[in-house]
Amino acid sequence: MNHDDKVGHAGWLDDLDELDRHELIEQITVDAYGDEAYWSFHQVIGEHVQFPVRASIAGADVTVTEIDFDGDERRGLTATAHRDDHTWSVSLLDVEFDAGQPRIARLADAYRRWLGIDK
Question: Which pLDDT tens digit goes with each residue over 46-61?
């Protein structure tokens, strides 16, 4: 089964910016079992965030061009980050998003909370 078939609910999340964190997590993960919630977060981010976005990793400014999930629940969602002539794939948990990027910051915060990690 294609992961897009498992998470067809994400496209209707038009009120994303009005939902509190708990409601956002609930809407993203509704009817998701196993790794489907990761795919749901991946799909919502892909549909509602315009890349590239500014961010930082360990205090270093980077540009994030993509969020991905390769099916490995231990690694979770990853971000493709660029700085100068270097490109890295890092855990989304290691990325801090610029205050000027509120949508991806909210979604990353919801993802952290869903995993049980509060900042």
Answer: 999 999 999 999 999 9
